[in-house]
Amino acid sequence: MPKYAALIYNPPELNGHEDASILAEYGEFMQKAKAAGVLVMGERLEAPNMATTVQVAGRRKGGKVTTTDGPFAETGEILAGFMLLDCKDLDDAIEWASQIPGAWYGKIEVRPLAQLPTQ
């Protein structure tokens, strides 16, 4: 079955400030999705101020590496976490993503994993 990334975006005021009821909702979803064999993994991310952006100059291997603390750009939403879902198709992935609590408070981006060519 194809795999889909469910990228969880929260409004900035919610990120890192989820109350116990929201965390319990996530726990319930994860148990249900694991029992159905859909949830491959899921993780919460630290706040954007914990991020480090890495860039290599010259757009090629071996260029000078520079780092910047924090997020690269200011946005109205924060990537708060992700889940990897193993679903039969996009419709199935959307159905599961709609049950992730982040969909009620922010947004979930569903994106299929790319099929890399085999060698």
Structure description:
This protein has 119 residues and is α+β, with helices and mostly antiparallel strands. Helix content is 24%, strand content 33%. The chain has three helices and six strands, in the order βαββββααβ. The protein has a four-stranded antiparallel sheet. The protein has a two-stranded antiparallel ribbon with strand order 3-4. The longest helix has 16 residues, at 20-35.
**Which geometry do the CA atoms define?**
flat
N-to-C CA distance: 21 Å
Strand line-up of the largest beta sheet: 2-5-1-6
Which whole number gives the mean pLDDT?
89
* Rg from alpha-carbon coordinates: 17 Å
Secondary structure category: alpha+beta
The proportion of strand residues reads 25-35%
* N-to-C series of helices and strands: EHEEEEHHE
What attributes does this structure have?
119 residues; alpha+beta; four-stranded antiparallel beta sheet; 24% helix; 33% strand; flat
